[in-house]
Design goal:
It contains seven helices and six strands, in the order αβαααββαβαβαβ. The protein has helices at residues 5-23, 39-43, 51-54, 63-69, 94-107, 123-128, 141-157, and strands at 27-31, 70-72, 78-81, 110-114, 134-138, 167-171. It has a four-stranded mixed sheet, sandwiched between helices. A two-stranded parallel ribbon has the order 5-6. Strand 2 (70-72) and strand 3 (78-81) form a beta hairpin. The longest helix is centred in the first third of the chain and has 19 residues, at 5-23. The chain is globular. The two termini are 27 Å apart. The mean pLDDT is 89.
Length: 178
């Protein structure tokens, strides 16, 4: 929180959308922070992912329902995000999250996922399915140590499942004369 993860995710997804437009490829931004996700706020879009409709009947989730639940930015960026709601997150199962991501990966060439800060029961599956994983931190001693610990933990915990080692991005670096 506060180090610019969402901003970097949005900018990356917009870049991939722009590049993709030139070579016939598509991109989607997926905000998996169901409690505090801010992607839609930054983009001034309405949330269309209705977890309440999916959770009781995950088998209903198909390509047609996915299309209905995507929000589209004026840039052409497609966004999958639910309304911010401190809900009963225990009902958001790994099966639901992975079904969503399976459909998104079948529909789009590039996917950028904005994850919540807290590790969820489905986080291992999401990270192990990623081509690249970045841990974003700031240029403070606690931030650097925490970023390194999180990346090392991911790399050790999922070492046999990762396609590439998790890397740390230092954001909000400011150089002073002192």
């Amino acid at each position: 929180g506060g180090v610019g993860v969402t901003t970097l995710a949005i900018e990356t997804a917009m870049f991939l959308t722009d590049v993709g437009r030139k070579n016939g490829r598509s991109a989607c931004l997926v905000d998996l922070d169901f409690e505090q996700g801010a992607c839609l706020d930054y983009l001034d879009l309405e949330a269309r992912l209705d977890l309440g409709e999916i959770m009781p009947h995950p088998e209903r989730l198909d390509m047609q329902l996915l299309e209905v639940m995507l929000s589209t930015h004026s840039s052409g960026l497609q966004v999958l995000s639910a309304p911010q709601r401190p809900a009963d997150l225990s009902r958001v199962t790994p099966e639901i999250v992975m079904r969503l991501l399976d459909l998104v990966s079948a529909r789009f060439d590039a996917i950028v996922v904005d994850m919540p800060r807290q590790w969820r029961p489905w986080s291992d599956s999401v990270v192990s399915g990623a081509n690249r994983t970045f841990v974003v931190t700031d240029m403070t001693v606690p931030g650097l140590r925490s970023g390194r610990r999180v990346a090392e933990t991911i790399n050790l915990r999922l070492k046999d499942q990762l396609r590439a080692s998790a890397q740390v991005i230092v954001n909000r670096f400011e150089q002073t004369l002192l």
